[in-house]
Amino acid sequence: MKIEDLRTPALQVALDFTSLSTALSVLRHLLDLGIGVFEVGTPLIKSEGVRAVSYVRSLVGTSSYVLADTKTIDVGAVEAEVAIGAGADLVTVLAVADDVVVSSALAKARELGGDVVVDFIGFRGDVVRRVAELRDLGVRAVNLHVGIDVQRSLGIRATALAGLVREVKREVPEVLVSASGGIRARDIPELLEVGVDVVVVGGAITRSQNPREEALECLRKLREFSR
Predict the structure, then answer these.
(1) Would you kindly state where each structural domain of the chain is located, as residue ranges?
(2) Of 181, 195, 209, 208, which is closest to residue 12 (Cα–Cα)?
């Protein structure tokens, strides 16, 4: 599925586990909720391999996108082929990767019917300029991302990126923007207000006592904004 066909604003649930059985147990509670994207997190792929992508795909069917958070930085075509071949619709490439890596991943992903999301985790340059460069390469989606270690050590979450999101959407409006990093249901209206297209929620849903209810609350916030 192509990224431009995703209905936005959308919720993306990040399955950032190291155990496939735990990830699938949580996933089963969420399958019928109309969640836009299920993310097979980097730790899960590294722990369980791309079979984790295949298992998630088998449960999700065609009702939602499956994103493999490969965080590719080299051999873009190879990693895109592996992930999409396992059932992913979307793969991630790091914004710090060379343009040739981005382009090769894009070409292979689209050849196989998928697409690429470029992840800005750890990026220290001019984000707006880089998004414009990526657009010129054909990229249609980026992720502005505060990583877990940064959240824990500095107390910074994705809400701190609101001003940056607004600037990116003003200067490069044709690129879809997702935001991730410690997002909770109550943060969603603020992020949608500045132009976030896809809200990525991980632990607030997956590590809660009631993942289904937390996901429903996130979806309620999305729907309230869309009215």
Answers:
(1) 7-218
(2) 181
